[in-house]
Request: fold
Amino acid sequence: MKKRSLLFLSQVKISMSSNTIQKLREYFEHFPGIGPRQAQRFVYWLLNQEPDFVKNLGELLLALRSDTKQCNQCFRFFTSSECRFCNNINRDKSRILVVEKDTDMENIEKAGVYNSLYFVLGDIIPFGQTIPKNIRLKELFGRIEHDSQKELKEIILAFSATAEGDNTCRYLEKILDPLVKKYSIKINRFGRGISTGAELEYLDKDTLKNALENRK
Ligand SMILES: [Zn+2]
Reply:
């Protein structure tokens, strides 16, 4: 009887732990660019790390949302006291560069080729599909309307050179057209020096500089 109970307990433990492995794998599969096999590798890799490493990682994950703020003007995430772009008096306020995500903006910033403002749209619009719910169209409209009454003179659309990126540009040009006309501002796309399929977050400094200089 005792033996059978022990066997039962160990089976429960195995089933619980495999459930945890499975659940964590499913979470990793939601990460951008991560498939089931990579997700599984992450889980087993974590199981082979020192307990402190996993504990610190868990604590950082918990702190990520509570320690991070989101700018109510450009919608980027940051951990300092205020947005270093929107609240920076040394930045030129006559241009807003619209990007899909924070990593695109970080890459442009790292290249040091741009000294004006940003807006993080949060997503792109796939061709022939419904507009994603998390895309910040209303917020972009509000920001352009607000800034156009101040120093804004130009909107620059900077998306990856993909069908979705082009579709997003076309859509934004259409919906922003009334504001562009009302306030006599310009709307331009990143120059087409970018090769087809190139993701903005991976472009090097020279390519970004050319794309910015050749915008139209
Ligand atoms: Zn900001």
